[in-house]
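User: Hello! I'm new to structural biology and keep hearing that structure can be predicted from sequence alone. Could you demonstrate with Hydroxydechloroatrazine ethylaminohydrolase? Please show me the input and the output so I can see what each looks like.

Assistant: Of course. The first part below is the input, the amino acid sequence of Hydroxydechloroatrazine ethylaminohydrolase. The second part is the output, the predicted structure written as tokens.
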Amino acid sequence: MALVVDNADVITMDAVTGSEPVTRSIRIEDGVITEIGATVTVNDGDTVLDGRDRLVTPGLVNAHTHSWEALYKGRYDNLPLELWMLYSYPILGVDPLPEDVVRLRSLLFAIESLESGVTTIVDDVLETPGQSASQLAAVFDAYEQTGIRANVSGHVINRPFIDTLPFVTQWLPDDIVRDVRGQATVTAEEYLDYSRTAFAAHDRSAGGRLRYMLAPSAPQRCTPDLLAGATALAVEYDAECHVHVLETRTQAVTAQVDYGRTFVEYLRDIDALSPNTTFAHGIWLTDSDIDIVAEHGVCVSHNPLSNLKLGSGLAPWRTYHDKGVTLGLGTDGCSSSDTPRLLEVAKSAALVHKITDPDPETWPKVGEVLAAATTGGARSARLGETVGSLEVGKRADFLVYDLTTLAFTPRSRLDHQWVYSENGGSLEYVYVDGRCVVDHGRITTVDRDGILRELREAMPRIAEWQNKLDELNGVLHEPFARMYRESLTHPVPVNRWAG
């Protein structure tokens, strides 16, 4: 039997109506939208959802996040990225997380994502000190249980972390330099073999909801053969290749000092750019870099909340749009933004760029922000033909909001209120593949209370583990802080603290 949403206010995000609300009915069969229009077929036995006083939208797409950080929510503040990584991704003394903790962490992240209207996540899963096949399987298993749609990565760093930053080794004790450089790293071929195995085991699992993606961490953190090989393998499997590029001013300095060019130029020169590539962050790019991005069809995930908290700068929103670059929106991880709630990111993206240029013609438009939160994120995830808009033939990932709530009272421009007014309290239902996975704020697919109880019981030992790592890695704080201050004295081609 089919599901019919009857006579609702609908934001389709399609090429015709875009973010403009229209009155529509929608018919869904076997998880696919089969009709959408003023009227649709209703047969005996169909389930009909009355659309009166309801807003129906596409599910939100979180185009860049890290579920590892779900265990670090609210833990750190006032740290620039390079110092923050010492604690959120410690390089000294960390043992692999057991699969049961990985499973709990992933379930927690999926639950909060779904209950806030995020139906698709691009989860750049970084396990420290490295990702095992069983850890990766635990993430996929958790996401299969919850019903979320996800791209899940094998995130990889194959250069010693202290060698990915400028200046810092001169201020580190010799024994720590030896320790970090002595840590095992994978070769490019080992990572590509791991990824081929992961594709065979997990890609397009759960009826196509779950996909594996390549994730070479960043140009400075991976060898050129790994970067180029991951790019080629992503194209071979029609998968996303997710790379952190020029997130901070320090990284712009690293590019100039260690590579003699920008990182975008470097990636172009080693054949590590393609339409399958997504840059996470993409802040400290020059105008010519953005030309290269546009020429190669690269997408960019914009993460303003994380960038603001870490003081990283602001991506050049209007320049990207003017040059035709597809933008998605991402929360980044729960240690750098403290939330997987994409509507918070959408509101910050709509607002923060209004103070970077006095010309209101350059400010983000609500339709652009909503496109980044839906269709743009879907395209960056290689899912543009599958989700992101409400159209015949696409999977039925959609949200139903109650329009009688305070957030939508008085009822005005619904697209504006979705971005600026709604805080999640109006969300009534969340559907993925035509299946109701959230009903009045509660996930329906897993035992929410049991999972949270299990996590609460585990948190004392997790917190003890985190505290020990903080203390152990704190020895690196002052050398890294000195490196950060030294980087501020070096010129870079652009000023992206102004966006």
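User: So the tokens describe the shape?

Assistant: Right, they're a compact way of writing down the 3D structure. Reading them back into a model, for example: The radius of gyration is 22 Å.
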